[in-house]
Q: What sequence folds into this?
């Protein structure tokens, strides 16, 4: 092609480039610098390991995210594979219902958890009627776990269903005709074939849970997950350098998880919320 | 295939998952139109709470719509051309650029918002206006638009189409307008729906970027969850559902057609 299109291409890409440079790359670079501008200098980046409060919050967040990831992947694999395998009346409605909470933001999910397991929640009413004791767990790690699970299931189900549709049924038939019991077919044929998709969606789920803010914000400001810690450092303690360094560390963790997912699967799904 | 015990077990499990997802939504909708949620439905149905929400929070709804429309417009103006350039260039550089463009999805909104605040917080007029929120939304949604358009560009053989148009004497502008755009329309549509929906529901960035006079719908929701009675908060959530569910249905319909 001639010279002019090359110039045109640059002109076409320029607006996005400028917006990105000015409002993302530059601010992120500044955030990294500010993270190192506190009393401790660049050592602030180690505070997530050296400050007990930050370390606890990091460990709690990682454990919570791992638990959510395992639960979401397990639940979604069973439901997703089932929905791909079988055709029955109402199936497409079921798929729509399972995926429609996809665009609910974390704040709204927090509220839904309160309606489910809060002081006036459904679980409380039911347990009170059954046992006399009101079960309330919305405003704790358990509530956060339920909220993140709610957030993750629609996303993971979509990925699992996409992967399950590509499975080759003849492999299973071969295994079955060779006398393999159903659980062996699952363990030796279905799961290995789904593995890349499961790892990818699991990593996305993990990254989203690590960085999520809205649900914790709605449920209780004293749940010590890393995004809440960053928020408190920034707003209550006015510790801007501390908040900056922690959020850079958090960003690195989520980015690494997603980069891993992309390498393993070749695709990424929305990590919204 | 014979439908034995296993089928029914799996069906029951899937229905249970579905119940977990849907029941809280139903609770929320009911609470929004019930006179007194704690007494239950027997206290009667009312639109009073919706009226209260409208009186208190209608501005947040309009601001969210405004930001979503402008965010979509910006995405169309800068995202679609950028996607075209990335597809046209190809190679390592384009892939590296694509990696950078999708970074705002991988990095928590809280971190991006902090970065924007420490960099531009000093520009008072900018900081206190809704354009500050818009910037956050554009960053967060741009990857989805670019990805969506790129995916379609990769699937249609746009180079050949363009070359044949060029051999017929079409200028670059003509080719872009009459060949490229119509061909990537599904990608632009899908990306637009995604962008609009994400912008309406965005909270992580917006909570940090908003000011008392620039409250969006999700910010208002968080506000009502913290300070309003359950019925009002539910009625507000109901309004949010009414706005977001048609968009979701449209998205599902589009992905099914593809």
A:
């Amino acid at each position: 092609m001639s010279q002019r299109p090359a110039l045109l291409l640059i002109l076409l890409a320029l607006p996005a480039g400028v917006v990105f440079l000015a409002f993302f790359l530059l601010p992120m670079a500044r955030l990294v610098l500010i993270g190192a501008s506190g009393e401790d200098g660049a050592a602030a980046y180690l505070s997530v390991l050296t400050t007990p409060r930050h370390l606890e919050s990091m460990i709690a967040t990682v454990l919570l995210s791992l638990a959510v990831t395992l639960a979401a992947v397990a639940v979604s694999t069973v439901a997703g594979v089932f929905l791909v395998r079988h055709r029955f009346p109402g199936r497409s409605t079921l798929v729509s219902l399972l995926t429609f909470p996809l665009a609910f933001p974390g704040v709204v999910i927090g509220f839904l958890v309160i309606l489910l397991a809060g002081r006036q929640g459904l679980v409380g009413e039911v347990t009170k009627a059954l046992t006399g004791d009101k079960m309330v767990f919305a405003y704790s790690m358990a509530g956060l776990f339920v909220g993140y699970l709610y957030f993750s299931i629609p996303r993971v189900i979509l990925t699992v269903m996409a992967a399950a549709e590509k499975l080759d049924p003849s492999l299973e038939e071969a295994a079955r005709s060779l006398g393999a019991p159903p659980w062996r077919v699952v363990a030796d044929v279905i799961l290995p074939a789904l593995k890349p998709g499961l790892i990818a969606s699991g990593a996305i789920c993990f990254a989203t849970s690590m960085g999520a803010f809205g649900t914790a914000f709605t449920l209780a400001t004293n749940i010590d997950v890393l995004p809440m810690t960053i928020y408190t450092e920034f707003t209550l303690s006015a510790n801007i350098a501390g908040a900056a360094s922690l959020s850079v560390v958090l960003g690195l963790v989520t980015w690494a998880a997603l980069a891993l997912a992309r390498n393993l699967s070749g695709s990424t799904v929305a990590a919204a919320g | 295939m014979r439908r034995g015990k296993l089928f029914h077990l799996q069906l029951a499990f899937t229905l249970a998952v579905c119940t977990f997802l849907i029941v809280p939504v139903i609770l929320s909708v009911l609470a929004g139109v019930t006179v007194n949620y704690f007494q239950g439905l027997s206290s009667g149905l009312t639109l009073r709470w919706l009226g209260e929400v409208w009186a208190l929070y209608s501005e947040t709804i309009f601001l969210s719509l405004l930001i979503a429309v402008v965010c979509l417009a910006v995405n169309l103006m800068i995202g679609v051309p950028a996607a075209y350039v990335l597809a046209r260039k190809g190679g390592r550089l384009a892939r590296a650029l694509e990696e950078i463009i999708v970074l705002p999805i991988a990095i928590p909104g809280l971190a991006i918002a902090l970065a924007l605040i420490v960099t531009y917080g000093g520009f008072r007029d900018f900081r206190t206006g809704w354009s500050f929120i818009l910037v956050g939304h554009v960053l967060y949604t741009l990857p989805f638009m670019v990805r969506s358009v790129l995916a379609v560009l990769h699937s249609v053989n746009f180079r050949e189409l363009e070359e044949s148009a060029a051999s017929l004497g079409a200028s670059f502008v003509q080719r872009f307008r009459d060949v490229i755009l119509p061909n990537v329309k599904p990608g632009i549509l899908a990306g637009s729906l995604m962008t609009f929906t994400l912008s309406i529901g965005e909270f992580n960035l917006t909570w940090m970027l908003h000011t008392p006079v620039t409250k969006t719908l999700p910010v208002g929701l968080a506000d009502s969850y913290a300070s309003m009675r359950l019925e009002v908060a539910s009625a507000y959530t109901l309004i949010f559902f009414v706005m977001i569910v048609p968009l979701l249905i449209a998205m599902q319909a589009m992905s099914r057609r593809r």
In short: Chain A has a mean pLDDT of 88.
